[in-house]
Write a structure and sequence with these properties.
Blueprint (H helix, E strand, L loop, with lengths): L7 H30 L9 H4 L21 E3 L9 H5 L5 E7 L15 E9 L8 H5 L5 E3 L14 E3 L5 H6 L2
Antiparallel strand pairs: 1-4, 2-3, 3-5
Bound molecules: iron/sulfur cluster (2 copies).
């Protein structure tokens, strides 16, 4: 049986095909690197039109919507410990304990008098469904949704965040 013979037109065709495919690959590569080579910010409206579809996370991050619902934060200095947020929470992930102060503790930034001190203000973000109801009922707007969405932890218990300003020993003393 004789070995296949390659004629020069076949070789030329192969080289031409190889050249075309390399050219095409280079075009796509250039397109995908374009926004990065031109140092376009990810917020530029043309970033994904001619560029990459995969983000180099965490180096690149999409801006989050201003009304997005992400990690909760309580500015405890403005909290009057009214318990409204805990009552509104559909999954009971807010735990609040308070003590009455002998005299007013000051005022919140919207002028409400603080009469209670929080000995515990915990939110279990592992249970939270980010419905945002707690933030809507808060009379002092101290409970807010932040833009932070990446808060992976190694230990599940770390998802319980503590906002009370009191130290654990003070907390136990008031129980
Ligand atoms: S966002 Fe919803 S689920 Fe999460 S703590 Fe607030 S009320 Fe509860
Ligand atoms: S509703 Fe607002 S002020 Fe009232 S306990 Fe919750 S966070 Fe504090």
């Amino acid at each position: 049986m004789s070995s296949p013979q390659y004629t020069s037109p076949t070789l030329l065709n192969s080289l031409r095909t190889l050249g075309k495919s390399l050219h095409l690959a280079w075009q796509h590569l250039y397109k995908s690197l374009g926004p990065r080579l031109r140092k376009l910010p990810i917020t530029d409206s043309t970033y994904f039109r001619t560029g990459p579809t995969t983000l180099q996370y965490p180096r690149e991050q999409l801006p989050v919507p201003t009304r997005g619902r992400y990690r909760l934060h309580n500015d405890i200095d403005d909290c009057i410990v009214c318990d409204k947020c805990a009552q509104a929470c559909p999954v009971d992930c807010i735990e609040i304990e308070a003590i009455k102060a002998p005299s007013p503790l000051g005022q919140t930034s919207n002028g409400m008098t603080k009469r209670l001190a929080a000995t515990r203000f915990d939110i279990d973000l592992a249970k939270c469904c980010f419905c945002g109801l707690c933030t809507t009922v808060c009379p002092t707007q101290c409970l807010t949704m932040t833009p932070e969405y990446d808060y992976s932890v190694f230990d599940w218990a770390e998802h319980k965040v503590h906002f009370a300003a009191m130290a654990p020993e003070e907390h136990t003393a008031h129980k």
